[in-house]
Each structure stands twice: as structure tokens, then as C-alpha cells.
Design brief:
There is one protein chain. This protein has 2 domains: about 350 residues, Alkaline Phosphatase, subunit A; about 60 residues, Arylsulfatase, C-terminal domain (2-Layer Sandwich), CATH 3.30.1120.10. Helix content is about 25%, strand content about 15%. It is built from 13 helices and 16 strands. An 8-stranded mixed beta sheet has the order 7-6-8-3-9-10-4-11, sandwiched between helices. Strands 13-14-15-16 form a 4-stranded antiparallel beta sheet, with helices on one face. A two-stranded parallel sheet has the order 1-2. The relative contact order is 0.19. The N terminus is likely disordered.
Length: about 475
């Protein structure tokens, strides 16, 4: 039963997730009031096509529209000008694999007893399966991280072409590491132009290794880093690169070239939609899976640090932390939504707190699919997409997939982080007035700390008592 897909809690031992990928048996017409059944009903009318582009390790501050002083991202800036840019959007995890599980399922990744990168998503309903069962043609191109099974039909995805892995080989012409995935996605759009279609393009850029083609590097040949243009966190990152003997200017040029290549690929998608006359009825969404890669913290091998760490100059903007961190820079990422005539153009939403776990319920609403689940962590935030505001009814939580991992919670204006090293005190930040998390207010607001800790305890009690991963070589 669906009620059992969260396998295990503090009171009940975790059980393995099964590996089925179709949710056909879970999508039935509700003939009785049963809390453990997902209802899926579709009405075909003006449902939009959906293009979802997910960058890999792109920081909140890496785009021109999000404040980077040197980035050249004209296509993504155009997307923001023609749509809405969100300032309080969070990935479901500060790490690649669990982040993707959050987008796919609307469920906090810590609920999965079996690590999704190893075992997949089991029987948990996915956004692709729901859309497929409602008549959407579905495709996935690029990075996967959703288990070993990539056969057609997995999670309701009709066409799957996964990335072949990172490459350190030199690229030529207007080709990026992700060009092949975008080539396939464009062919998918052309083939399914009659729609409705859902296509997700999950790139590998700007995850290390940073290796943009010369054509993407050329615009930054004269770029010189001015320390005053960056946050205190970035200054620490620059100092780390310098300690490794790296050239900050050269590293920045290479990183900006890689981001520029992402923007080029986005331009190809937008141009194709215009060419086919699909732009008006296509929802285009751009996001990142987590914050920017932490310079100098790539693996345990010093050789990896020497080869890659000097180029990982992604920016979390005004925030603290990066990939893997429970501070804002680890999970707060760019999120841009465009749907001409529906989503307001040129708008910046600086109040709505939204998350990757909202992706599934929001798309279900837009696609006119009724999906009721007692275990869905996400909320339908279509009101924020369409120009209003969204007030969350429940907090956002982050926890890695091990029992005593640190936990963070965002509720209203507050962010609390606790756990980690023994005897580490709770940290409380007002991330509205102090986005850089510079002043710990725990001693000043003990009642707020107590309330958030109670919410954490209640949530943590619902999680698996054990987590399983496959042995690493």
C-alpha cells in the first residue's frame, strides 16, 4: 500500500523499497474514501507542454539575473525577463542524488530508507509516471542518479537517454559537455510537437571537471576578479584556491565559460520552441540541483583537488555555504519559470518559500491531475507561479541519509540548523534579514529555537531507523 512507501520509522524497522517503476495500480478513480490511494484523473484541454532544465552544482549567484558581476547568461536572463524569478527556492537536498529524488517524488529524500542513487525510487509515485498516465509523452535526457534501471518506461518515462559521464577531453566549436543531451531533447520536442509533452534535461555542467570549449572561454579573456564584487564566503573560497597555488582569474574564466555553455544550450531550446510555434503553450523551468561545488573539497585525493578544485568558483550569491552544506548556499538555488500569458513576465518573487518537493503537486495541478497522498511533503505552489504568493503550511526539512545526520529546518523567516559534531549547539538565523547567516540568534530567541526543535523531533520520528546503501568500491 502507498502508506507503506515510507519504509520504517523510529518505532518501526525500515523495509526495502521495491523496484517497480509503474504506478498504474496506484492511479485509480476514487470509489471510496481511502487515505492510502492516490487518485489520478486527467482532463485534456489546454494543458501545457513542460520543459524542465536542471543544472548540476550551479550556485544561486552564478547567473546574471541572480547578480553575478561577470556572468554572460543572456538566454537565462531572457527567460527571467519573460517569466518569474524566485528568490526563496530550495533544492530538496544540498547533494545531487537525493535532490533529484525530491523533484521526482515530492517527498523529502530522508524518507527513503534505501539510498535512491543505488536502489531507485521504488513504488513511490513520480511526476513523470503521473503525467505519462495522464496522456503526456515523457522524456529524460542527461544525468540520471535515479537507480540502475534506465529502460524505457522506468518511472513512466517513455524515452530515456542518460549522460555518458563526465569528460575531461577538450571540446571544440559551440559544443558543451551537455550538447548531446540537448540534441536528443530537441529531437524529442520535434517528434512530440503535437503534445502534450514533458521533457527533463538534467545537465552535468558546471559540475567538475570544468572544461569549456574555447568558444565559451573567449568572452572572458580579459575578466579579472575584483574582491569587492563578492561576498565574504566567496573571499574564503578565493583564499583556498590561492593556497592550492591556483590562479583565481584563470579559474573564474574557466568557470564562467562553463556556465556560459549552459546558457547557450538553453538558447537552443528556446529557439526551437519559437521555431515550432510552441512557446506560448510551453512551461519552461530552470533550476539547479544544489549549491555550487565547494572549491578544494573534491574527493579525498589530493590529485583531484589539484586538477579540479582550483576551477570550482561557483557563487552562492549572498549566502553562506555550498554543495553539501546545510547553510543557505547549499540548497537555495536559482528557479525561473516562464509560461507566456500565464506566468507574469519580469517578476521577482521575494516572499514565497518554495521547494523542489513542490514540483510534483504543482505540475499535477497545472496538468489537471488530481493527486491526493497523505505522504506528500510538497505543496501546490501554482499561486506563486501565477503572480500571487504562497504561504507554506508546513516547514521544509533537510537531512542526509544516515541516522544521526545534522538536520536543518526553514519555517517562515527562520532557519535552524542542529546536529553534527558532538555537543554542537543549535544555530538559529533570520534568513530574511540576514541571508548570509552571520548572526546566530539562538540565545536571543529561545522560544523560537524550542518550537523549531520540537518540529524537528516530530519529523525525525517519522523517518527510517536505518538507511541502506550499496557498498562502495
Amino acid at each position: 500500500m502507498l502508506a507503506q512507501f515510507i519504509h520504517g520509522s523510529r518505532q518501526e524497522e525500515a523495509k526495502p523499497l521495491r523496484s517497480r517503476h509503474s504506478i498504474g495500480l496506484l492511479c485509480v478513480v476514487m470509489l471510496s474514501v481511502t487515505a492510502t490511494i492516490v487518485a489520478c484523473e486527467s482532463k485534456v484541454d489546454d494543458r501545457p507542454n513542460i520543459v524542465f532544465v536542471l543544472a548540476d552544482d550551479l550556485g544561486y549567484g552564478d547567473l546574471g539575473s541572480y547578480g553575478h558581476p561577470y556572468a554572460l547568461t543572456p538566454n537565462l536572463d531572457r527567460l527571467a525577463e519573460e517569466g518569474t524569478r524566485f528568490q526563496h527556492f530550495y533544492a530538496a537536498s544540498p547533494l545531487c542524488i537525493p535532490s533529484r529524488a525530491g523533484f521526482m517524488t515530492g517527498v523529502f529524500p530522508a524518507r527513503f530508507a534505501n539510498y535512491t542513487g543505488d536502489f531507485g525510487l521504488g513504488d513511490v509515485p513520480t511526476v513523470t509516471a503521473l503525467l505519462h498516465d495522464a496522456g503526456y509523452r515523457t522524456g529524460h535526457f542527461g544525468k540520471w542518479h535515479l537507480g540502475a534501471d534506465t529502460s524505457s518506461g522506468t518511472y513512466g518515462i517513455g524515452t530515456i537517454q542518460r549522460a555518458k559521464g563526465q569528460t575531461s577531453k577538450a571540446l571544440e566549436g559551440k559544443r558543451s559537455r551537455d550538447s548531446h543531451a540537448y540534441d536528443q531533447a530537441i529531437r524529442f520536442i520535434e517528434k512530440n510537437r503535437d503534445g502534450p509533452f514533458y521533457v527533463q534535461i538534467w545537465g552535468t555542467v558546471p559540475h567538475y571537471p570544468i572544461n569549456p570549449a574555447p568558444s565559451f572561454l573567449a568572452p572572458f579573456a580579459a575578466t579579472t576578479v575584483a574582491m569587492a564584487d563578492f561576498s565574504p564566503f566567496m573571499l574564503k573560497k578565493f583564499a583556498r584556491v590561492h593556497s592550492y597555488g591556483g590562479d583565481i582569474n584563470e579559474g573564474m574564466r574557466r568557470y564562467l565559460g562553463d556556465v556560459h555553455s549552459v546558457d547557450f544550450e538553453i538558447g537552443r531550446i528556446l529557439e526551437k520552441l519559437d521555431e515550432l510555434g510552441l512557446s506560448e503553450n510551453t512551461l519552461v523551468v530552470f533550476a539547479s540541483d544544489n549549491g555550487p561545488g565547494p572549491s578544494g573539497q573534491v574527493g579525498r585525493d589530493r590529485g583531484l583537488v589539484d586538477q579540479y578544485g582550483k576551477d570550482l568558483l561557483g557563487s552562492p550569491g549572498p549566502f553562506r555555504g555550498g554543495k553539501g552544506s546545510l547553510y543557505e548556499g547549499g540548497a537555495r538555488v536559482p528557479f525561473i519559470v516562464r509560461w507566456p500569458g500565464r506566468v507574469p513576465a519580469g517578476r521577482v518573487d521575494d516572499t514565497s518559500i518554495t521547494s523542489a518537493v513542490d514540483w510534483l503537486p504543482t505540475l499535477c495541478g497545472l496538468a489537471k491531475i488530481s493527486c491526493a497522498s497523505p505522504h506528500l511533503d510538497g505543496e501546490d505552489v501554482v499561486s506563486a507561479w501565477m503572480g500571487g504568493a504562497h504561504s507554506r503550511t508546513r516547514p521544509l526539512f533537510w537531512k542526509d541519509s544516515w541516522t544521526n545526520a545534522p538536520i536543518a529546518i526553514r519555517w517562515e523567516r527562520w532557519k535552524l540548523r542542529e546536529g553534527g559534531p558532538p555537543n554542537r549547539d543549535a544555530e538559529l538565523y533570520d534568513v530574511v534579514s540576514d541571508p548570509g547567516e552571520t548572526e546566530n540568534l539562538a540565545a536571543i530567541h529561545p522560544a523560537v529555537v524550542a518550537d523549531l526543535q520540537n518540529r524537528i523531533r516530530e519529523w525525525d520520528e517519522t523517518l527510517p531507523s536505518r538507511y541502506a546503501r550499496k557498498p562502495r568500491r
